[in-house]
Amino acid sequence: MSLAALLALTACSGGGSLVYGFIEPVTEPVSSIEFRVPDELVELEEGYAEDRVFESITVSAVESDDPAGCAVEYEFDFADGGLERYREELENGLNGNATLDGRMARGLTGRDLEDIELSEDYSSAVVPLDCAASPSDDESTSRVAFSWVVGDETYILASVEVAAMQGGELFIHEPEVNGWELDTNGNWIQQ
Hints:
Blueprint: H1 3-11, E1 17-20, E2 32-36, H2 39-44, H3 48-51, E3 54-62, E4 70-78, H4 82-92, H5 100-109, E5 117-118, E6 124-129, E7 142-150, E8 153-164, E9 170-177, E10 180-182, E11 188-190
């Protein structure tokens, strides 16, 4: 293994990975998080299963081009027909100087295209961030949002903000499930 590869591996060695389903809080730092909407909630939210955009979104800490900064990489696992539905809805809303790539960048990461690296097939994106000073620092985060398309409208079922520290640790802030909450028995109920 080359020295450069070894340094790249240790630069983002914040911890392991986990699957996050908007149920349990994350208490330990990790370097990669696979976000999923829980199956129970997919079944309860009418129309979401058929019209959702994503199966999962994985966010991993990666080395930043700026040595003083942090970066995260998104990997999008689109649901069957999800990318096509999302592209079509965004293409129908194009106007002025807007481009499909620009709208996809904003829709997928919440950031402008010129601020990120977006893959041509929309399967991944790298987003530079200011590094968080502590696990509770939510000043510079990147948004993960689970959308679904109904007609010519896009709705968000669940979202969360992710912060990264210089050592490659990721932390979750402000998880939200629109219209639903967990009761004390762990069951999803409508708000």
